[in-house]
Design brief:
Helices cover 41% and strands 17% of the residues. With 416 residues, the chain is of the alpha/beta class. The strands form three sheets. Strands 2, 3, 4, 5, 8, 9, 10 and 11 form an eight-stranded mixed beta sheet that branches. The protein starts with 5 loop residues before the first helix and ends with a helix.
């Protein structure tokens, strides 16, 4: 039997993101009648799918698909695409960027793995760590550190906004930026909760990062400029010293595995060099598909006019279905629905851990994600996430309805 290295053991062991992706794969191939309320896969929106078919056909007709498939790009991305993307951000978002601020990466997941281990871990100045200022946060970060204790996180303030609604806020009284903090990272809108930082919270985090001379990293997979699934008016803005990640997955292209990092040139160059080592180059198809849509703003309009309204309607429908199914017979609350593709359900005083509820629901062919996976980097026990579930409403409406009704039935049985 092989003896794995310490890093090999860290990366090859069981983890939340591996369990999630295994569940997704099995449901698609082995258990097609599974009600998928757990993954982050985007919905099949007809207008969006039609656009990608149109672009593929155009690439076939003009012969550009051959060039796209036959050539390697530089490890930082196609130079022309980087120019187009920078011009798009400058024109539409007012960000003061050039091509040197743009790095194309083979998915946000791999980009964050490289970024976290570029900035933190064992350094000549001692051990450095990444601080997550607002838990719960993305399940895919939790196991990306190559050294023990590389991540530290801060519990939120929980504000109840009604009988069945609450919101997380950054607890600035609890937040501590010690000399070993290399960067702060937050997803916005947050995966799993849909939380959007308030303008005051964003500005305070930015100012703290500046004062301590560290990057503030914003994972923008669901946010501005696309797919722009944010239901309020505030949009975080990139500034020098910050790092923004923008994904193509949530505009209906998860299969092309392409993301864009916006950062200072030193970080862009470092990520490009690292990408050459681990990936050689990026996939070309995603860049080729969206480049013309950045120039004529069709991608922006797609988010504003199609994708965002679609998910807002799905969100409202799922909330209504869950409210009807749970009623007032059990104590529950949803995080305020401010963006992204999820319901974050808090089952107050749940008599079993959410992980056990996940197993019971899986036996009834409903897949959810238990909340404890999204609460990492803590040095103390926190009961709250063990009472929470992440639910996606991107699947067809009847599947979401059935899944939520089964979930409510299981929860009521626990309370009976």
């Amino acid at each position: 039997m092989s003896i794995f290295s310490n890093i090999g053991q860290r990366l090859s062991g069981p983890c939340g993101i591996q369990e999630l992706m295994d569940d997704l794969g099995e449901a698609l191939s082995v258990t097609p009648d599974m009600r998928m309320l757990g993954g982050g896969q985007p919905a099949a929106i007809p207008e969006v799918q039609a656009l990608w078919r149109e672009r593929m056909q155009a690439m076939l007709d003009d012969g550009s698909l051959d060039k796209t498939l036959l050539n390697y790009d530089p490890p930082g991305g196609n130079p022309l695409f980087r120019e187009i993307f920078a011009a798009f951000l400058k024109r539409e978002c007012g960000w003061d960027v050039t091509r040197e601020n743009i790095a194309v990466m083979p998915s946000s997941q791999s980009a964050f793995f490289l970024l976290f281990n570029l900035l933190a871990g064992d350094t000549p100045q001692g051990k450095k760590r990444i601080l997550f200022p607002l838990l719960p946060d993305y399940i895919g970060y939790a196991n990306q550190a190559l050294t023990e204790g590389q991540f530290i996180a801060c519990r939120p303030v929980i504000t109840e906004q009604g009988p069945h609604e609450f919101k997380y806020h950054v607890d600035f009284d609890r937040l501590r930026l010690t000399p070993d903090i290399a960067a702060m990272c937050v997803s916005c809108p947050t995966n799993p909760t849909g939380n959007v930082l308030t303008e005051a919270e964003f500005n305070q985090l930015r100012d703290l990062a500046r004062q301590h001379g560290i990057p503030l990293i914003i994972d923008n997979a669901y946010g501005h400029p696309f797919p722009d699934v944010i239901h309020g008016s505030f949009r975080p803005k990139w500034e020098p010293g910050m790092v923004f990640s923008i994904s193509l997955s949530k505009v209906g292209l998860p299969g092309v595995r392409t993301s864009v990092i916006v950062a200072d040139p030193t970080i862009v160059k470092a990520l490009s060099n690292m990408n050459a080592i681990v990936s050689l180059a990026n996939g070309n198809v995603g860049q080729a598909l969206i480049a013309p849509l950045l120039q004529d703003d069709r991608l922006l309009r797609l988010g504003r006019e199609v994708i965002r309204p679609f998910y807002k309607e799905r969100s409202d429908t799922a909330k209504a279905a869950l409210s009807h199914a749970l009623g007032d017979k059990v104590p529950w609350a949803l995080h305020a629905q401010e963006g992204a593709f999820f319901l974050w359900l808090w089952l107050k005083d749940l008599p079993i851990p959410a992980a056990e509820l996940y197993r019971r629901l899986k036996a009834r062919k409903v897949l959810v994600i238990p909340g404890h996976y999204f609460a990492f980097g803590l040095d103390e026990e926190w009961r709250h996430p063990h009472e929470c579930l992440r639910l996606t409403y991107s699947q067809p409406a009847h599947i979401v309805q059935e899944g939520l009704e089964i979930l409510a039935d299981e929860v009521k049985k626990l309370r009976a």
